[in-house]
Amino acid sequence: MHKYELAVILDPNLDEDGLKAEFDKVTALVTRFNGTVEKVDDWGKRRLAYEIDKKNEGFYYFITINAEPSAPREIEDRIRIMENVLRYLIIRVDE
User: Based on the number of CB atoms within 10 Å of its own CB, is 54 exposed (0-12), middle (13-18) or buried (19 or more)?
Assistant: First the structure.
């Protein structure tokens, strides 16, 4: 198992229930591929560095996960098609 950090920016137009649902979908992907969520850092609504899909803001989440080396690719493939995710990035954290 390796440690990874998953950064996700969600659509700013989501209401509280929609935001929780989308976040739950992301964390469900981690557990689906035998990963565990270690820590969640919710930054809330922040201004984007540049406009994405005519949006200037987004909800930022940084999730520390433990997963097998094959899991990040599988997670990225699923997150890529989620329409309320503006941007995402998974990086391996050196121990």
Answer: exposed
